Amino acid sequence: MAKYKYKPLLWVGLLLATVSCERPTPPTSAEAEASYDLTAYLAQQRQELEAERPMVLKSVATQGLAPEVVETSEVDWEDELAVFEEADLNRPSLQEYYTKQEQVLEDGSVAVEYRKLPEAAPQVHYLRLLLSPKGQLRQLTATLQDKNLIYYSQRNIALSTDPQTGDIASYNVDGVQKMIFGDSLHYEVKANL
Fold first, then answer.
1. What is the tens place of the pLDDT at every residue in 36-51?
2. Residue 77 belongs to what H/E stretch?
3. Does the pLDDT value for residue 1 go beyond 60?
4. What is the pLDDT of residue 35?
5. SS in 3 state form for 120-188?
6. Closest CA to 168 of 90, 83, 95
7. Rounded to an integer, what is the distance from CA 156 to the centroid of its chain?
């Protein structure tokens, strides 16, 4: 009889232990759902750029060397736009690591800023999107940072679009990377379509 006396308490204890160990899901809000889908925009732009093959004036400079400038239509757009896809925060699992501020500007455009929380360690430290009154991307600026025991990298990225069409007009990446046993390397890539 004593054997069954504690059985309900055991089940309640196990249930409480299980519930307390589960990670709470971040709250979903209309604000999080309304985030700009940067990945979808870049995929659509990549398809158009691969089909149209526009001329691109591209400058690549590494510290201590003169910039190398080339004009070409032979661009690997998947590789070229990958760094901007890394800045997409449109996943609900990422929303809990950022504060988000929106500001409506005088012309009806919306500036959306994401800043990482002090205790969070995501790759994207800062993201600012400027959206037209119709919701088209006008500008993107972001700071990305990777850091571990042997490697450090920080990239400041920017992308601007044509105000009429919403297509990518220019972009640049200004970065530094350092291996623990090597010198740091500063580089800058600028492109105009």
1. 899 999 999 999 999 9
2. helix 77-85
3. no
4. 67
5. CCCCEEEEEEEECCCCCEEEEEEEEEEECCCEEEEEEEEEEECCCCCCEEEEEEEEEEEECCCCEEEEE
6. 83
7. 11
Name every residue whose Cβ is closer than 8 Å to that of residue 152 and which is 6 or more positions away in sequence.
Answer: 146, 176, 177, 178, 184
Residues 175 and 154 sit within 8 Å (Cβ to Cβ): yes
**CA end-to-end span of the chain:** 82
Which has the closest alpha carbon to 130: 108, 112, 157? 112
Among residues 136, 126, 135, 189, the alpha carbon closest in space to that of 165 is found at 136
Q: Which residue has the tokens 């501020």?
A: 101
**Tell me, what's the pLDDT at 61?**
94
Pairwise pLDDT comparison (178 vs 4), residue with the higher score: 178
- Residues of the chain above pLDDT 90, percent: 64
- What does each C-alpha distance from 160 to 60, 138, 152 come to in angstroms? 18, 6, 27
Q: What is the three-class DSSP state of 25? A: coil
Pairwise CA distance, residues 38 & 31, whole Å: 16
∠100-37-189 over CA atoms, to 5°?
Answer: 90
With bands split at pLDDT 50, 70 and 90, how would you rate the model's confidence at 15? very low
